[in-house]
Amino acid sequence: NAGVTQTPKFQVLKTGQSMTLQCAQDMNHEYMSWYRQDPGMGLRLIHYSVGAGITDQGEVPNGYNVSRSTTEDFPLRLLSAAPSQTSVYFCASRRTGQETQYFGPGTRLLVL
Amino acid sequence: AQSVTQLDSHVSVSEGTPVLLRCNYSSSYSPSLFWYVQHPNKGLQLLLKYTSAATLVKGINGFEAEFKKSETSFHLTKPSAHMSDAAEYFCVVIPLGSARQLTFGSGTQLTVLP
């Protein structure tokens, strides 16, 4: 099992550009989520999904869109990047009914 | 809302000395509590978790944590620090009724001096 994978590892964007952060898991986990990590603030939940076709907002959803067309993939879209979105983004997954989440290696995003 | 507070943003210890990373939670009930570790430029790895079984929880790499309901604490300890323990540590709570969504503390950066 590869676990949770994320691409790209690092990305630089200009303000106003769009991009998609990819996340995939091969553990057949129903629940997937996106977090952003900023210094001194821990990780904050952006969006999550409890299964294919179902998504919901977390603590900091503004400026981000998600979709879940398959169990394996959960992409995060930035439609118009802003410098405030400079952060490290983590994707995570877990099995329904369990509490332990498995994290991907992260994507470092710099918005100029 | 239930939350978790890590009392120290930075902790520095000498190699071979004990480690104590402090975490307090606010909750009317006994939540599920976790410690995750993040090594530089790496993802998060689960160290240990408390889910209302034994109050003393043993994790990987010699770490353990004790759940103290009377003090609403879940401090992480290790008897003897190793250079490889240098990392950032996050205390995490799953509040009651949150659909198992994680709430993270702000993190504690552990430095291990030779």
Helix content percent band of chain B:
under 10%
Cα-to-Cα separation, first versus last residue of chain B: 41 Å
The outline of chain A comes out as: globular
Estimated radius of gyration of chain A = 13 Å
Report the sheet with the most strands of chain B, covering strand number, pairing sense and barrel closure.
6 strands, mixed
**Category by helix and strand content of chain A:** mainly beta
Mean pLDDT of chain A: 93
The number of distinct helices of chain B, counting runs of at least 4 residues, comes to 0
What structural class is derived from the secondary structure elements of chain B? mainly beta
Oligomerization category of the chains in this entry: heterodimer
Uncertain stretches of chain A: none
Q: What gyration radius of chain B follows from the Cα positions, in whole Å?
A: 13 Å
Relative strand content of chain A:
over 45%
Biggest interchain interface, per-side counts: A-B, 23 and 21 residues
Give, in order, the helices and strands of chain A: EEEEEEEEEEE
**Which of globular, elongated, flat, extended, rod-shaped describes the shape of chain B?**
globular
Q: Could you spell the SSE succession of chain B in H and E letters?
A: EEEEEEEEEEEE
Count every beta strand of chain B, where a strand is a DSSP E run of 2 or more residues.
Answer: 12
Instruction: Give the mean pLDDT of chain B.
Output: 89
Q: Percent range for helical residues of chain A?
A: under 10%
